[in-house]
């Protein structure tokens, strides 16, 4: 940990990391329009827990539109943005991540997008006329994400050769499914320009949900951890989506799929904006390895628990903690 001076980052204590490595060339790229994509999806989830999808059918104009609205929001005066906060759990947050001492060089907006159409009762500013364009972009984007997450999870089921086809997707498509959209903004940090280091924007962690779908602008910073613990930098691609296996999917597959550890490093000069759709199950859904994926005599690696139980525990930990450890047999 390094304490930066008031002339730099407002005396915020933030982790310093090495500058991003060269881009990692081993990210699986899966063309959803090609036959055999279901097999490639399963392989990517087994080997890395992370992959990129192309030919996803979502117009670039829609992605760019929400990005532009996010940039507009994050460009508001601080007092205006804070009208949407604090993030408890939904709303605007700045530097503080969660309630357990984690911090990062970012600001963010977290939205509950479970209902259809989205209800913003907890974020009154979104109901104001001045927020109509942001509200419209959010609703259209979330609708597109629902279709994409269903397609990807149903292809996974095909690749795993389990029935019914919606055995995984139904968990995130239920009316009570716990789905969240997070808009992250990592402002440029010019004070790092001449330093041989980067600032941690979002510390290392895994996502507790079933699946996460991320789209960002053309700024690097996202890193994932390989199985040997090596951190590698993901090449940015604003036209595609990056998908993470979450902790819950690791449990459902009895560890066959692995939840990927990832982090974001802030840039010295370029702003990074990302939109992440988190697909989680209903609050009372009981999570345990699917019997259809258990071989003869195979033992469950996890005890059964509800999503509400796991979510409550996960959000009570630090980012880098091994959350699933408590639920292993």
Automatic annotation (TrEMBL):
Record-linked SUPFAM superfamilies: Clavaminate synthase-like
GO molecular function: gibberellin 2-beta-dioxygenase activity; metal ion binding
Domain of life, source organism: Eukaryota
Catalytic activity, EC: 1.14.11.13
Keyword Nucleotide-binding: no
Fe2OG dioxygenase domain: residues covered: 176-281
Alphabetical keyword list: Dioxygenase, Iron, Metal-binding, Oxidoreductase
Named cofactor requirement(s): L-ascorbate
Catalytic activity as recorded in UniProt: gibberellin A1 + 2-oxoglutarate + O2 = gibberellin A8 + succinate + CO2
InterPro entries recorded: DIOX_N (IPR026992), IPNS-like_FE2OG_OXY (IPR044861), IPNS-like_sf (IPR027443), Iron_ascorbate_oxido_reductase (IPR050231), Oxoglu/Fe-dep_dioxygenase_dom (IPR005123)
The UniProt record lists the keyword ATP-binding: no
Family recorded in the similarity comment: Belongs to the iron/ascorbate-dependent oxidoreductase family. GA2OX subfamily.
Protein's UniProt name: gibberellin 2beta-dioxygenase
Species, as recorded: Phoenix dactylifera
């Amino acid at each position: 940990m390094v304490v930066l001076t008031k002339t730099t980052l407002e005396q915020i204590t933030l982790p310093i990391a090495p500058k991003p490595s060269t881009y990692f060339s081993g990210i699986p790229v899966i063309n959803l329009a090609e036959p055999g994509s279901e097999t490639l999806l399963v392989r990517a989830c087994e080997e890395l827990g992370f992959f990129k999808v192309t030919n996803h059918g979502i117009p670039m104009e829609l992605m760019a539109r929400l990005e532009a609205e996010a940039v507009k929001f994050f460009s508001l005066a601080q007092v205006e943005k804070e009208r949407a906060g604090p993030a408890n759990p939904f709303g605007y947050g700045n530097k503080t991540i969660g309630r357990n001492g984690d911090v990062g060089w970012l600001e963010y907006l977290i939205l509950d997008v479970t209902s259809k159409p989205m209800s913003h009762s907890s974020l009154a500013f979104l109901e104001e006329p001045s927020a109509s364009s942001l509200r419209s972009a959010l609703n259209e984007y979330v609708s597109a994400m629902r279709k994409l997450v269903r397609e990807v999870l149903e292809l996974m089921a095909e690749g795993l050769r389990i029935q019914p086809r919606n055995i995984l997707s139904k968990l995130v498509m239920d009316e009570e499914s716990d789905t969240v959209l997070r808009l992250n903004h990592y402002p440029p940090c010019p004070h790092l320009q001449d330093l041989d280091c980067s600032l941690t924007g979002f510390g290392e962690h895994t996502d507790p949900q079933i699946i996460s779908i991320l789209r960002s602008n053309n700024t690097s910073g996202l890193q994932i951890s390989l199985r040997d613990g090596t951190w590698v930098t993901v090449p940015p691609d604003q036209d595609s989506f990056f998908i993470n296996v979450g902790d819950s999917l690791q449990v459902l597959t009895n560890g066959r799929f692995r939840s990927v550890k990832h982090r974001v490093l802030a840039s010295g000069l370029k702003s990074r904006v990302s939109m992440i759709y988190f697909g989680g199950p209903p609050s009372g859904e009981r999570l345990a390895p699917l019997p259809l994926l258990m071989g003869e005599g195979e033992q469950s690696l996890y005890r059964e628990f509800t999503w509400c139980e796991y979510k409550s525990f996960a959000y009570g930990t630090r980012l880098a903690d091994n959350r699933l450890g408590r639920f292993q047999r």
